[in-house]
Amino acid sequence: MNKIAIVILNWNGVDMMRRYLTDVVNYSIVDNAVVYVADNASTDDSVEMLRSEYPQVKVILLEKNWGFAEGYNKALSQIEAEYYVLLNSDVKVTHHWLQPLVEFMDAHRDVAACQPKLLSIIDTDSFEYAGACGGFIDLYGYPFCRGRVFNTIERDKGQYDTAMPILWATGACMMIRSSDYWNAGGFDGRFFAHNEEIDLCWRLRLLGRKVYCIPDSAVFHLGGGTLPKSNPMKTYLNFRNNLTMLYKNLPDRELRKVMRMRFLLDWLAALQMLVLGRSIGDFKAVIKARMAFKAWKNDFRHDRETIQSTANVDAVPERICISILWQYYIKRNKTFRQIIDLVKS
Fold first, then answer.
1. Are 130 and 143 spatial neighbours (Cβ–Cβ below 8 Å)?
2. 81 forms bridges with which residues in the sheet?
């Protein structure tokens, strides 16, 4: 069994891999790390390119496009390693990216997963939207990060350069113990894509396992490679999956109250999209997402019962029990530091 398996899930990403895979191969020579590409039935030249230009990379062929969540489940089930590193094909790694993650995980057996600092390829002095310096959620399930709250993205001035427990590690670059991945049930393949890493990390936290950001490691992420932020399908998946994640993981005492508030907030978000000139597609996507959640909610009842009955902690401290919407739009607190200072006070 290898110690580290770096696994890139690919779907029609031949150009991204040509741009970034060489650095992954060259800068990941530590503890016998092995690089894998799991191909989600690409229709471009991805597989041919890998076999001709990167013979040292192991290729796993999946029979169809399973999406991000189930694609990783299918691929990782074929790999034996102590640690998995889930890495997007549009991530540029640096010389020293892997060692700090491995050293931290080796030294902290109570930590299930971690992520590096995620910076933008386009603006290398700024955090990147998809994970920045570690993820949190608010009272109503809205994700935010050290370095990114909604669309406010901070410049990296070293203000978050300390290792810190977080609620979720970004799926763009996540190291996770294989034992923890499978003990928690892996990604929820029904999500297809979006919010699956938050759901998994929340389940790990409820089991008493920890998740960290390790800023001594830094990588650069392009982002939006498969679905741009303006795509209604991304809006649909984010809303549907976020509601499902809340249903699965919220304690009984909070579930009804939070879901009632989310009903109001989701309709407000849909109307805002319509009034402020975003596409009618985004408005419809939110409505469709709520309908889809209602239609499949009962399919997750057993998941919810299992998660709640096996939870080892009563409350997860990285779920910040305030409304990030209120703080951001009404109180005008736009940065993680402003919000956390408010919570501490």
1. no
2. 2
- pTM as predicted: 0.96
Distance CA 72, CA 38 (A): 8
Alpha-carbon span 171 to 234, nearest angstrom: 15
How do residues 279-322 score in pLDDT, each as one tens digit? 789 999 999 999 999 999 999 999 999 999 999 998 899 999 99
Asked if 188 contacts 199 with a C-beta cutoff of 8 angstroms, the reply is: yes
Other residues' Cβ atoms within 10 Å of the Cβ of residue 264 = 10
Tell me which long-range contacts 301-310 makes (C-beta under 8 A, separation of at least 24). 303/188, 303/248, 304/247, 304/248, 304/249, 307/203, 307/206, 307/248, 307/249, 308/251, 308/252, 310/206, 310/207
Residue 138 burial (CB count, 10 A): 20
Chain center to CA of 121:
18
